[in-house]
Amino acid sequence: MPPISPQQTLKEVFGFDDFRGGQQAVVSRVLAGHSTAAIFATGAGKSLCYQLPALHLPHLTLVVSPLLALMQDQLAFLARHGVAAASIDSTQDRDTTRNVMERAKSGELKILMVSVERLKNERFRHFLRQVQISLLVVDEAHCLSEWGHNFRPDYLKLPNYQRDFAIPQVLLLTATATPTVIADMGEKFAIAADNVITTGFYRSNLELLVAPAMADRQQQLINWLKPQMQPGSEAPTIIYVTLQQTAERVAKALAAQGIAAQAYHAGLDSSRRDEIQRQFMGGESPCIVATIAFGMGIDKGDIRNVVHYDLPKSIENYSQEIGRAGRDGQPSTCLTMAGRDGLRVLENFVYGDTPEYAGIYRLLEEIAAAGQAPDRQWEVLLNTLSRDTNIRPLPLKTLLVRLEMHGIIAPRFAFLAEYRLRYHLDPSALVNYFEGERAAFVRLLVDNIPIARTWGTVDFDRLHQAGQTQQIDASRDRVITALEYFQDKGWLTLEGKRMTDVYEICQPNFTIEVLTSQLYDDCLNRERIEIERLQAMLALFESESCLTRRLAEHFGDSTFGKSPFDTPSNAEQGRCGHCSVCYGHPVKLPDAPPETPLTAADFQRYATPLIERHTEQFGQPPNAQRVAHFLCGLTMPVFTPLKARSLNGFAVFEQRAYPQVREWAARQINK
């Protein structure tokens, strides 16, 4: 019997008659054994590019995905089509995780989805080495590149993971990669240019509109949207805003006008967010007012409007978000209510990620100290290190990756610093299952893991010392192996927490001052690039040439102007015929309202609460950077013990430009 072809699988398993866009080119390259990159527009069917090959490859396909919501949506799709797929994620209990691992080991699973952080877990890495893997899939692969719009430092380690687990090939998937990002991704995984498949970003059914934001932006939105929200024929709509409080305020205003709108943001608990998403997907709730927490993995075909009430974070974010409209091919509208007023908030988010010079110096001091130890090992609890250096977790991760790239440190392994257990039978009965030295070892465990009520904490130092006294091997590895075996037998439940990364200090004699300056300059350069990204987005919206064409050019789309345009004349002129500019309405964004000058009285009123508490707790006043963060509502780790959010003055200047607030604070402090 001849083997089943990919075309047959497409029809019989997934129910599609034909491949779309570049899907067939990607699938054929993957099945030919080539590492491949698929750069497809949002909604163009990237997921099928790994789902179909996974059924033809001999071993497991491992998918790294950045968001739980993405995994859940794709797993639901695969389940409907009878594909054996599962995920391992933080929401699962131990029994579920263990079951998934057993299915993977037995060869039953074809697809396993995980977050990139899962690959640092020592127990998970041990499991992966017991499984043959045919293909590593990296979803949202632009996260690999420092030049991308959503850089995630842990993604930089994926090429090393591919080598560690002997995975023969990779497939990179993304919807938002510029030519620079594509080249960066290809270089990291040695993907030949012929194996980078890009579909055009042009979609003829999307109308791109930019309207200058009016003084009463809320009423402007109501006037535009209300005619499309007649009872019984509401147009499914997503409205994107920057801040959680804006989502709540706008949703309330729409509801007051009879438009059934709901707010969606990270401040809601997960069950409420899930319910709102379910109602929107099912057509019960036609309008969502959301921060960018909403949308990843949303595959609803009939979204008629995507509105940017506030400016998006970048051209890449804009492209991704409007790509959720009109996936059914029907006409859909993407409206941006553009003004410069919201630009300051977006810029402030960028400035908020830049660490203090002193924080980087403190980080390097700790590394230098660890480098003087005989084993040159440095144990890192990220949240603790973040608190000690006053560097937020994401910038801190980025700094650690930069230090790896400088050859200062090298990751060796990660482990859970704390384990606790709960017995399901009398602990003494455990000993009876074993004989000789093993029985003595189990007795040592039982005697030296005291139970408080129902749970006991594993103290590895105590066990090791007790083992030395009794001449029994009670090393950490042996203890964990035994406890995991007991859990597999159903004798106890084992839980781990406090992930600890262990680094080797490869160059312990670096000059702290020189490296601090270099890393700080890198951070300032990243800040500059992100601010320029925002300016590029404004330039797009103020374009005097076709918006669709400008968007395509940003992503290096060479198909624009060739096909499939509305009319031959439009194609010849490089015009889409269905954007604001093509309609004859280019936009000049209104200036942000002028700011009133800041005074010494403002500083006394708003900064004093922070200064007093900081001085009381740390013995010295805060620097200008900390004061500016506080007044602009930007978090930093030092604010947690200070309970800064509860102080009068926090976020009072949220709408002001951060650099100006910082310079003003520095002048006031130095008076």
UniProtKB/TrEMBL annotation:
Q: Does the keyword Ligase apply?
A: no
Cellular component GO terms held in the UniProt record: bacterial nucleoid; cytoplasm; replisome
Domain Helicase C-terminal: start-end pairs: 217-368
Q: Which reaction does it catalyse?
A: Couples ATP hydrolysis with the unwinding of duplex DNA by translocating in the 3'-5' direction
* Domain Helicase ATP-binding residue range list: 27-195
Q: Which SUPFAM superfamilies match?
A: P-loop containing nucleoside triphosphate hydrolases
Q: Which domain of life is it from?
A: Bacteria
**SMART domains attached here?**
DEXDc (SM00487), HELICc (SM00490)
GO biological process assignments: DNA recombination; DNA repair
The alphabetized UniProt keywords are: ATP-binding, DNA-binding, Helicase, Hydrolase, Isomerase, Metal-binding, Nucleotide-binding
Molecular function terms from GO: 3'-5' DNA helicase activity; ATP binding; DNA binding; four-way junction helicase activity; hydrolase activity; metal ion binding
Checking InterPro entries in the record gives: DEAD/DEAH_box_helicase_dom (IPR011545), DNA/RNA_helicase_DEAH_CS (IPR002464), DNA_helicase_ATP-dep_RecQ (IPR004589), Helicase_ATP-bd (IPR014001), Helicase_C-like (IPR001650), P-loop_NTPase (IPR027417), RecQ_Zn-bd (IPR032284), WH-like_DNA-bd_sf (IPR036388)
- Top EC group: isomerase
Question: Which EC number applies?
Answer: 5.6.2.4
Q: Which family does it belong to?
A: Belongs to the helicase family. RecQ subfamily.
Please give the name of this protein: ATP-dependent DNA helicase RecQ
Q: Which organism is it from?
A: Vreelandella glaciei
